[in-house]
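Reviewers asked in the last cycle whether our approach scales beyond single polypeptides. To address this, we selected a multi-component target totalling 777 residues and predicted its structure end to end. The input consisted of the following lines:
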Amino acid sequence: MINVDEKKMPWFEGMTIASILEQIEDTQFCSVIRLNGKLVSSPKFSETIVPDNSTIQLLPLVAGG
Amino acid sequence: MGQLNLKETTSVSYERAEVKKGYTDFSLRINLDTNNISITPIEEAVKEKFIGGKGYDLWMMWNAVSANTKWDSPENAICISSGPLGGTPGYPGAGKSIVTTISPLTGAPIDSNVGGYFGPYKKFSGFDVIQIDGKAAEDTVILIDGIENKIKVFSASDLPEDSYEMSAALTHYFDEKKPVNVSIVTAGPGAAKTYFGCLNFSWWDAGRKRVRYKQAGRGGIGTVFANKKVKAVVARFGAVSMKSNNPADLDALKQVTKAHAKEINTLDPKQNRMAIVGTTHLIPIMNDHDCLPVHNFKFGSHPESHVIGEDVFQYIFDKGFDGCWRGCSVACAHGVKDFSPFTGPYRGTKVFVDGPEYETVAGCGSNLGIFDAQTILEINFYCDAYGLDTISVGTSIGFVMECFENNLITLDQTGGMDLSFGSRYNTLELIHQMARGKGFGTIVGKGIRKMKAIFAKDFGADPKFMQDIGMESKGLEFSEYITKESLAQQGGYGLALKGPQHDEAWLIFLDMVHNFMPTFEEKAEALHWFPMFRTWFGLCGLCKLPWNDIVPEDNKNTKEPAKVAKHVGWYAQFFSAVTGRKVDSNDLITMSEAVYNFQRIFNLKMGYGTREHDTVPYRSMGPVTVEEYQSRAERYDTQLIEKYDMDISQMDTKSKVAALRQKREEQYELLKDAVYTRRGWTSNGIPTIETVKRLGIDYPEVMEILKKNGIE
Ligand code: SF4
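The resulting structure, written as structure tokens, was:
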């Protein structure tokens, strides 16, 4: 089981950030997330493997300086 | 009071105007030629049109300078204002000062939005805006004392030279018992020796019992300050509460303040964690999206960038409350205590560094090939102590390093310093030289535009190549984002009134990552709405970070998430509650539009403000060199084939660089056309008669300037 924005989601082997976002609505503006506290950006969503029991936070649209 | 050598030369008692609905309705002018101090009511019509903050500054400056005024002319004015909402404790970001002058870098009005307590203290002392003009004969300190209701001018000697020590000494001098009552504006020694001197605005950090600083960095306002021989401007005021602005509707103000502050307290820990990492979270994000400036904006990422981002700074920053305004719950103004520099006058001592923010880390770190938090902290510390803008310093030295690596300048010109990318020690030496006005640092301190001319004339460097790689526009150095893949942000920089600073528009992700504005019209719409709304913060005395760096949880479901409609609505409520002027979200845009267009015409008055001045260097649009093209060859090749329908099979990289350049430059010109149309400007970038009439800024002098430029 993983935790995405304080909601539980079932985990599966080989799960990536990209595959998680596919299951959630309104994520078109999500280009950065935190995976267990570490920032991961959209170019790495497909290659980032999510371990079981992970906590993920979807960050809002990046607003710059 | 302590024992500093200040000799009072002028002292004026005044009756402090009561603040009503966010305004005192008085301005203060201090003329340094005569030491004449004048307090003048602000007309209702000016208030109605210019709102406050940057609007007031620009109006005062417009009346102070002529088309012939240069940055060092006595009549050039430095104006500092707050704004009707400035000074509301607890409202996130509601303590900003806005500073303007004619810039030594651009020759046109520059504005800078800065934290610290000065703006609110000055307002509560009785003045919505202050204007300092003329030139003092000797070093001068100005005191605006809202506790004793006195304006004093002192001649000063033996003051500590650097900005940090001077502010600390003056804070204790003017209120030993309650240093929290004092906020000081200072420049440092570097401001007098360079064209990009900044101003430090102070506040008393009660938790750490020390003076802290924020910088009005851009455009050399500190240089003008030093040129006028002003060492410091001090504001002194006592307790501040929600009632200090005497708001029209205190209950409504409390309600909206509570709502916004609560949201930030709840959501910042789940979002960007700015209360812990400041803006350093942007380093890894920009790096991963190829937008972090590396080696003079040549590249957008670097494998070592992880050692200069939030992963490191969250442990280095000193723990404690870091709001640069009272009760600002974003509290992102972090610092590092017990830092020990390894060069310069503070070598081996322990100092407190205020910063770094993203811009400093990117500009003085990755952009220079310096991936070392210690060196970045030291650069940050000395730039602040010397009064130098870290953005102009970083972008200028990046240009110098690329020139050095391309043999446009050599050891003969740099005084024997190897200025290749990554030269940590020599970067610091260059900064020490800038502050002392010695050696090669003297040339670098003039900024990129002047360096280009000097390198070409005196060293025989190739002007065309320098034009391509010198990251300046309008004479101002770029702030620290790579824009090659975002046409909209190229416009965000190139069409910004004061020069390439991102405070008007930051559209990179909307445009490049999310492709939210594929057409020119959509880009133009964004380059209308965002600069107008962002201008509004400067009119009111606010910081923009609480608007869109922490957003409501349901923001992503709104029609246009980038606008953060709920917060815009709160700002309209905030404005209505304080001023009593009932406004909605759309009204905020109209308010700004008048001031924005006025500033564009102000540029025109000073000899700029037309299409040719909205030009950007090609480095900001695409790859200048073969090396740069090859670093992203797949992306560029694909664009040439798919977007521009070209057969590139027989083309070498040099030809591809040229082909891509032609396309991208064309796109930028088309963008200009679309934006000018949306803004109600001519194809030469000048507001039309219809536009100035619609906005009610058709003053006789405005119409005369338009006529002189062929607009009738
Ligand atoms: S958000 Fe940060 S910069 Fe803005 S006022 Fe608050 S502490 Fe200062």
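The interface with chain B takes residues 5, 26-32, 38-44, 57, 59-65 of chain A (CB under 8 Å). We regard this as preliminary and will revisit it once experimental data from Aim 1 are available.
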